[in-house]
Amino acid sequence: ISGVRRIYGVELVEARWEVGRQALQRLSDRFPEYQADIDYDAAGCLSDDRGRRLELRLGNLLEVDPRMLKKCDLLILRVSLPWGTGAQLQALLQHLKRGARVATSMDFRDF
To answer: Which of 10, 40, 45, 68 is the most buried (most CB within 10 A)?
Structure first.
């Protein structure tokens, strides 16, 4: 995607986070232009020498530090949120920087 420099993702389920962390490591192993920085407790990052960065954290999306969202160009949401959390998600998304994109299959009209 043109203009995307930073992608931020949060995974709640540890087993799925581990799959993502392993994928970051495989990409780094296969493509030397990408460097993986893996914190085996909570974070994985893949970056290149052009300043692009993909960061994957283990945690609850609704508890993310809003300052992290101010830095990202793309937020990918593939989540099932409990009923009644729509307002909380909308408040969190207000922290995205101007021009940031959200990729999701969610229908925000339901919130």
So the answer is: 10
Specify the 3-state DSSP secondary structure of 31. coil
User: How far is the C-alpha of 82 from the C-alpha of 96, rounded, in Å?
Assistant: 22
Name the β-bridge partners of 48: 34
Round to whole Å and give the CA distance between 25 and 61.
Answer: 23
- Cα atoms in the 13 Å half-sphere on the side-chain side of 46: 20
> What is the pTM (predicted TM-score) of this model?
0.78
pLDDT one-digit tens code per residue, 48-83: 999 999 988 888 888 888 888 998 999 888 777 777
CA-based end-to-end distance of the chain: 27
